[in-house]
Model the fold of this input.
Amino acid sequence: MVKDLVALTKPRIIRLNLIAAFGGYWVASQWNIDAWVLVWMLVGSALTMASACVFNNYLDRDFDTKMERTRDRALPQGRIKPQSVLLYAIILGIAGSAVLFGLVNELTGWLGLIGIFVYVVIYTMWLKRNSTWSTSIGGISGAMPPLIGFCAVTGELTIGAWLLFALLFLWQPAHFWSLAIRRVEEYRAAGFPLLPVVKGITRTKWQMLPYIVLLVPASILFYMYEYVGIYFLVISVVLALVWLVHTVLGFGAKDDDKWAKVNFIISINYLMIVFFTMIFDTSKV
Done:
């Protein structure tokens, strides 16, 4: 039971996003750390993200029975009642919002609520079932963690906050579409109109390119505004170019599944390395 409750929160997604939230806080703090604010920001972020993920599992429970990747989850298998999962999601959301509003600041609380709303209502309930734009627009919620981390320090939306938002927002589509290409037939069978299902794999590869390309100027601007140092600039640009080259090579790939798997791995490593570098190469006041 406990294992299923944890799985409903999608802990792998939360781990990645907490790294991004920590990176956002660290950059904004410029090494002037308030440990308690940092801790409460991470706790509140984790709880709000967990709430959104549990709502997602609740709303997708019928679709999850149609996909090999998801049919063994607790809801499709009937190990937990839907009403219990819905209550669980609500409790997590209330707890996360209370922490952010009460122990961090009002802006982070609103950002957390916006993240939940976009992921649950805009992405899961609407676009995921009706439009190929689900991945792109749904990326707004996925880009909230570094924004929350940054605003936990500043209490306002500055250029640094928006650049952090841009980095994670631009990262998500190519990352997710790499997975979607590998699972395209499962998504087709489940009835999700994702880009590779509706427009095909070649069109999806083309659409990945602008997002990856735009990561380069976003990183350069982050350096130019003196939030990070030269190591971040070099590493982030080089990794983005490696990812871009591999994506371009995908047009000649004979095995799309193998290519997409490598592209997915590159995307994961890009995010982790870039945010760890950001943390260690933050400009000091």
